[in-house]
Design a protein that fits this description.
HSP40/DNAj peptide-binding domain; Helix Hairpins; 382 residues; binds zinc ion; 11 helices; elongated; 15 strands; alpha+beta; three-stranded mixed β-sheet
Length: 382
């Protein structure tokens, strides 16, 4: 474990600093090390998170007292956040009272949240077996790095909207004063500020579109059409709720399409495949090797097998998304009748035919369509 740094040093304050001084210093450092301002700089992100960790302690009177008295050891057993594994946006939303607003309206539901985004990926059936990773590229709105989202040319500032006096909402009276309606201010669009000198990079929007590429982990057992949700990879909060982007990002929804495999038909976690066998194998029984999604499997064909009979091999299907328990591989027997036979085979069959008495009735009773019906019922039944 790395040596733990002194929290006062991290926040560059004296041990006697007031809580306001600590807060101010944290805000300044968080902005300095914010990953959006230091793109691609891993050290900046580490600093950013260290500051959050330090502030969580020093910004809390009780935790600060414990830390002052016993150092890092004093905090053991005290609930704390694992900032290293947290998203920057989550950290921002945690300390929303420090970063929040920037003059914009606070959303009534607490922390401002951005839009979710959706994208799609295609995977092969065989990839459902163990899960896989996919690189996805998508476009999303980002807080403009030039103006930090306020839309004003650097050096200038947005001014308070004259129409709504910065409230973002206006009251309208209708029907001789019978109704009072509160609507979003048409002049500023609800932000409470107007930009006179627009930022050139975002044309005053405060947001720019950026292509983003991430690796998405697709879990084993996923079904066609299911969605993998990647937290906080969506858009930053909308301008009306947070110009600076403070708050939480929306999520990225990845819709997974599983392409068909000619060899198998998927029935939930089971894989169904046709298995062609010869007449004599059906009569005498046989062990037939087939290729499953993960290597060869031996199928035991019982003596006296009928067309359409199914043989199930447990745990050679696909894993269940939740339990990870594997379904079965189901071979459906198709008795192959050769179009051409040799003279020797003809001779043997003719010999055999003399001994044979075909029972027409049984073919109807236990026939193909009945088997199909039973098979269908067994799938829908579980
Ligand atoms: Zn801008
Ligand atoms: Zn306004």
């Amino acid at each position: 474990m790395a040596e733990q740094r002194c929290y006062y040093q991290i926040l560059t304050v004296e041990k006697t600093a007031s809580s306001d001084e600590i807060k101010r210093s944290y805000r300044r450092l968080a902005m300095k090390w914010h990953p959006d301002r230091n793109p691609g700089d891993a050290q900046a992100e580490i600093e950013f998170k260290s500051c959050a960790e330090a502030y969580e302690v020093l910004g809390d009177a009780e935790k600060r007292r414990l830390y002052d008295a016993h150092g890092h050891a004093g905090l053991r057993g005290n609930p704390h956040h694992d900032f290293r594994s947290m998203h920057v946006e989550e950290i921002f939303s945690m300390f929303n009272d420090i970063f929040g607003g920037g003059g914009s309206r606070r959303s009534s539901g607490g922390v401002p949240r951005g839009y979710d985004l959706q994208t799609e990926v295609e995977i092969k059936l065989v990839e459902v077996l163990n899960g896989c990773k996919r690189e996805v590229t998508f476009s999303r709105a980002e807080v403009c790095g030039t103006c930090q989202g306020d839309g004003a040319k650097p050096g200038s500032k947005p001014i308070t909207c004259a129409t709504c006096q910065g409230h973002g909402q206006v009251q309208q009276t209708g029907l001789g004063g019978m109704f009072r309606m509160v609507t979003t201010c048409p002049n500023c669009g609800g932000g409470g500020k107007v930009i006179t000198d627009k930022c050139a990079a975002c044309r005053g929007n405060g947001r720019v579109r950026v292509n983003r590429k991430i690796d998405v982990t697709i879990p084993a057992g996923i079904q066609d059409g299911q969605v993998v949700r990647v937290q906080a990879e969506g858009e930053p909060p909308r301008l009306e709720t947070s110009r600076s982007g403070a708050g939480v990002r929306g999520d990225l929804h990845v819709v997974v399409h599983v392409t068909n495999d000619d060899r198998f038909e998927r029935q939930d976690d089971d894989l169904v495949m046709p298995l062609a066998i010869g007449y004599s194998q059906a009569v005498l029984g046989a062990v037939v090797e087939v290729v499953s999604l993960d290597g060869p499997v031996h199928i035991k064909v019982k003596a006296g097998s009928q067309q359409g009979d199914v043989v199930r091999v447990d745990e050679r299907g696909l894993p269940n998304l939740r339990t990870k328990r594997r379904g079965g591989l189901i071979a459906m027997l198709m008795i192959h009748v050769p179009r051409k036979i040799t003279d020797r085979q003809r001779q043997l069959l003719e010999e055999f035919a003399k001994t044979e008495k075909v029972d027409v009735k049984s073919a109807h009773e236990g026939g193909f369509w009945q088997k199909m019906k039973e098979l269908k019922e067994s799938f829908t039944g579980n």
